[in-house]
Design a protein that fits this description.
single chain; 450 residues; alpha+beta; 5-stranded mixed sheet; 16 helices; 16 strands; 40% helix; elongated
Amino acid sequence: MALITNAVKGTQDTLPSESYKIQYVESAVRETAENFGFYELRTPVFEHTELFQRGVGETTDVVQKEMYTFSDKGGRSITLRPEGTAGAVRAFLEHGLFNDALPQKIYYITSCYRYEKPQAGRLREFHQFGIECFGAGQPSADAEVISLANEVFNYLGINGLRLEINSIGCPECRKEYHKALKAYFEQYKNDLCETCLGRLERNPMRILDCKSPVCRGIAANAPTVLDYLCDDCREHFEGVKKYLDAMDIAYTVNPQIVRGLDYYTRTVFEFVSDEIGAQGTVCGGGRYDGLVAEMGGNPLPACGFGLGLERLLLLMNAQNVPFPERKKCDLFIASMGENASLKAAAIAKELRGEGLQVQMDTVGRGLKAQMKYANKINALYTLVLGDSELETGNIKLKNMNSGEQREMTLADFIDNFQSVVIKDAVADFESLGFDGIDATDLAEILGGAK
């Protein structure tokens, strides 16, 4: 049978054989964020187009080329979110979170949509872990946000990333820098791409972020923003570096970093890898002190970052970072006959309530086929129920790894099964040379089994 259609270009399915990996990463970033005092925000997948035009910036590639924009049935211009910060600021203002204790520290794990050329780790539908800190203007806030990203990488066991930082100043000191950039790029007007010619008049800093090899080559010798920082911005940047030094987080200053979105001010940073292709930025962010006011709120400092989960997984696979195994079937109950099947369902319900993964036959297979299925799903234990077991109340529990069978009573099975699992796990640990494993501690490790 032919498929009606395939997945849309630039999107991908996450199959059950891989989904446990992304679940592990999501769990890691949630735990890390909450350890820093950040809490989750969820926003709609689409917003009014104006939100991104004003927030992200009219001169960015995102707004000019990449947004998925359409008119809804009411004639409103709607855009699928291309990034997470603008929607987070909108929610922060709409729900009056500025009235709560500041700083407000939020995180999100969200899908984003950009129409760009699909490549490894960069899709048209992608997923992002983002951090936003509203109401903190000190250099320590910038460093804490950077530290959070760094801690995520440490948690996951990722190595070899470079932290590159820069300051792009405030609107006041950027005025002189823009004049210098414009004078420099005017010399190369005949060589710049069409997009950058438009940027030359409106926002020459955007030329520094152009992906065209010609424009990048020209931009390599452009004036650097660090030479034009005002005293306050220079002092702020020095403060960020001091806090990073205090936390022993290595970094290099890269004056070419400007980030691809217009809302950034002062600190910008990227975590970069050489192992996932030419566009190796895994995480990027910085400070955006003017964005809350641009969205209609009172002036309020803010900073944050976005971390692409697909690129993170690509890097983890490239480095052969180990993932925990996905949860296995603790017990498969094979049954013969309706009464045995009903009993299997009752047992499964009780043990699932204890946090165990239990499966039973729901297809109507014969016993041999059920046991074959138990092998395919790597069930740790199997239990066979038939008329004889129901009549006598005696059953046999089989350890599928060792082949050992234990005789038990059906009446006591639910109470005794988890203790059997613990005893076998202790024996397995001791066989590896870990003597004196405490069963109670191991029970906690295995998820609170009795």
